[in-house]
Design a protein that fits this description.
2 domains, 10 helices, five-stranded mixed beta sheet, about 40% helix, about 260 residues, alpha/beta, 10 strands, three-stranded antiparallel beta sheet
Length: about 260
């Protein structure tokens, strides 16, 4: 055991508020957005298929910035290894999660990694009731919590039957793979990667507009998971490759190009 308590969360923003609210705490950050892309090899020591997916999603400029911490496959393999080591990482694990698909999947993946461990596990569930200021009632994330509320957030033990059920869900979802995963009312469902292409196309008009402005529209309306700018920009590029959208300018950077509906 390396310490009495290890706090586990999804994303650097969530880690930042936990560290601000609980100075000196040990925090393990998982950065992979499990809501999108194939999961077949995500828990292996060489997740090449998942790394290839992320390599395609990010344009060259963004990819270079992300890979300063190692290639995609190296970073994903490091997360997989950290989860394999989780049963011996601390005397107690506290998993912080919101209602978004990525955080719910992280919860299930962590519980799968701990499926045979005797390590006590607690969870801090961040829902809309903790975030009265949130604009989207269907989405609540750990990163939305004010740091001053972190210390008083209620951590509750994860009951054995819940641990087993959610761990089994992870195994099922990983086997289903698919392209997208939505979380609604406690249930995670799998969908094709192009499930929201219609909403992205609907954001396009007949006139040229900055791509960053266009993708901001579906980001605000897509439900089931947090649709990032990187995901929406990637799908828009796929739609352009299909002849359904057009670009002009530097297509490797969303802020240096314009887009419109194909004419």
């Amino acid at each position: 055991m390396t310490g009495p308590v290890l706090h586990l969360c999804c994303g650097d923003s969530a880690a930042g508020v936990i560290r601000a609210g609980l100075p000196g705490s040990a925090v393990l950050v998982l950065r992979d957005d499990l809501a999108v892309g194939p999961l077949d090899d995500v828990d292996s020591d060489r997740p090449d298929a998942r790394a290839a997916f992320w390599h395609a999603v990010f344009p060259d400029e963004d990819r270079a910035a992300i890979e300063t911490g190692g290639t995609f496959v190296e970073q994903l393999a490091a997360e997989s290894a950290a989860l394999r080591d989780l049963p011996d990482a601390a005397a107690k694990i506290v998993i912080w999660h919101g209602t978004g698909a990525a955080e719910q999947l992280m919860l299930r993946r962590a519980l799968w990694a701990l499926r045979d461990a005797a390590t006590p596990v607690e969870e801090v569930a961040v829902g809309p009731e903790l975030l009265p200021q949130a604009g989207r009632r269907d989405m609540a994330a750990v990163a939305m919590l004010p740091p001053e509320d972190i210390a008083t957030a209620a951590a509750r033990p994860v009951a054995p039957e819940r641990r087993a059920r959610l761990a089994a869900e992870w195994a099922r979802l990983r086997a289903e793979s698919g392209g997208l995963r939505h979380h609604r009312a406690g249930t995670i469902t799998t969908h094709p990667i192009e499930a929201h292409d219609g909403e992205i196309l609907a954001a396009l008009g007949p006139d040229w507009e900055p791509a960053a402005r266009v993708i901001g529209r579906p980001m605000g309306t897509i439900t089931g998971f947090f649709a990032t700018d990187a995901f929406c920009f990637w799908r828009l590029r796929q739609l352009a490759a299909q002849g359904r959208a057009e670009f002009r300018g530097d297509i490797t950077a969303m802020r240096r190009c314009e887009t419109r509906r194909a004419v």
